[in-house]
From TrEMBL:
Keywords: Glycosidase, Hydrolase, Membrane, Transmembrane, Transmembrane helix. One of its GO terms (molecular function) is hydrolase activity, acting on glycosyl bonds. This is Glucan endo-1,3-beta-glucosidase, acidic-like. The chain crosses the membrane at residues 6-27. Belongs to the glycosyl hydrolase 17 family. It comes from the Eukaryota. It comes from Salvia divinorum. Coiled coil: none annotated. Signal peptide: none annotated.
Amino acid sequence: MAITTHYFFLTAMFILIIMFTSLDFTAAQIGVCYGRNGAGLPLPPRVVELFKQYNIKRMRIYDTYAPTLEALRGSDIELTVGILNMQLEEVAASQANADRWVQTNIRNYGNVRFRTIIVGNECHVAKTRKRIG
């Protein structure tokens, strides 16, 4: 019985060691939220330079600020972008409005790597329902 338990633990340890050595921990990527509320902040081109310098591959912005999108052109940084709460009612009003928003804010920046579009930020459901639905 003691020998069987001993072999079980050795086998389990061996399997765990093999599992952990085969995992690719470098595949995890760091992303940073790039907020623009504040004084003395660097300009978007400098922010993109800093992302590249520190090998940060993902960025989240809360709106589609054109200078930021311009700075991201060709940067290979994966971008998560938000639709502002104040834009939700207009974008949700019709398919044409949604298409226009996508054309203006996404498709016009063909060499920006958009990863995700976030709809709203900390939306208040009761207020949103009154305006949209």
